[in-house]
Amino acid sequence: MSSVATVSFQKKNMQLAENVYQQTKKKFEAGTGSNTEISAAQADLVSAQNNFMNALYTALISKVDLLKATGKL
Predict the structure, then answer these.
(1) Please, where are the H alpha helices in the chain?
(2) Would you tell me how many other CB atoms lie within 10 Å of the CB of residue 16?
(3) pTM
(4) Burial 36-73 (b: 16+ CB within 10 A, else e)
(5) How confident is the model at residue 1 (pLDDT cuts 50, 70, 90)?
(6) HSE-up of 1 (CA within 13 Å, CB side)?
């Protein structure tokens, strides 16, 4: 999988985790969700955010490596 595809995938995953967290938060505020559910959704969101940032970093490093290899940097 290319770095660009990985970034795109991780961004979509992060957006999904955000949606899940928001829905879980609404359930918790309405009294139908548990503290465990919201904690798990929050942990999943943070993990998805970290994965996105790591993918973005890897893509940037790959671009720099390409520029170095082609003598453009």
Answers:
(1) 3-29, 35-69
(2) 13
(3) 0.90
(4) eebeebeebbeebeebbeebeeebeeeeeeeeeeeeee
(5) confident
(6) 11
